[in-house]
């Protein structure tokens, strides 16, 4: 826990530094009006979700587990709001690699289910809104609270996310293959000698 807590502090500070260093991509490009207007997509290798202006020169790469309380701290108070504001201003784009390590550490399947649900939200163009909602309503990490019912309840608060296909994707774990690939990338990141550029993890 102490190690993860230190990471949360370090990474929150690093996010703020990177955001402060970002510059608007073009004086002729208007700000995005709201978070729901931010472009979102999937990386070419299928492991990472990207958010923000793809032409922005500054990238922040976050490794997150939806059950992680330090990820929740980062997203809600530790630097997440400033990061989102920078994305709206086209100063920064963000890459999210979603992990499920807490399922193995504390038991349950909530991390995997939440990652699958986030991937399903991406298909509907609702990742940013749903991602924010999940962290605003994160269950205690000791409780396997991300059940299908709870994930769908939260999805119902995002306009346009609930539907037959998206609901079925959550219940059937349609994107189950996305979960281990994303976790593998996170494991590689944690391996000695694998730092290729600046990566941020609140875990």
UniProtKB/TrEMBL annotation:
Residues 1-26 form the signal peptide. It comes from the Bacteria. Residues 46-151 form the Thioredoxin-like fold domain. This is Thioredoxin-like fold domain-containing protein. Transmembrane segments: none annotated. InterPro entries: Thioredoxin-like_fold (IPR012336), Thioredoxin-like_sf (IPR036249). Keywords: Signal. CDD domains: DsbA_family.
